[in-house]
Amino acid sequence: ATCGHGCKYGECMGPNKCKCFPGFTGKTCNQDLNECGLKPRPCEHRCMNTHGSYKCYCLNGYMLMPDGTCASSRTCAMVNCQYGCEEVKGQVQCLCPSSGLQLGPNGRTCIDIDECSTGKAVCSYNRRCVNTFGSFYCKCQLGYELKYTSGRYNCVDVNECVTNTHRCNLHAECLNTKGSFQCKCKQGYRGSGFDCA
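^ that's the sequence the OP posted. Answer follows.
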């Protein structure tokens, strides 16, 4: 079985037929499935979609049970947590629905952890880190685009000279470089390459 465009988060099952891993959808399994929009809803109260998965959390005054349901709790109601809470040995602790969030100074609301600036996120060569609320993802560096080559997705250099996305002067030559381009005035002209006289 060969899948010409590849199966990003799945496996190739037949000619251009992808079987997506749980949490992903699309012809090439490249889109995140928003489980929170499914019927029946996967969470009893509130749902937060994450990359390839989801997290359940409860309204204030309820605590998240191991099976994902929300149980009423008088003690939780008194603490006034943003995303529900859990009771551990009689102590009430507020919860955050993602490892990319941490409890704020008040111990009740969750604040985002910027994985890109703390160095917790590791992106492969040619990719840059983009922080999101509660998580992060890796995106191709500027001057590169995501392409399916030799059986996998890679960040490939964009040839600005071929795609005509350069800003070289009419009397200049465009030279492609890794992740960028350069402009050189043609013979008989002088200047920066962006301006030639």
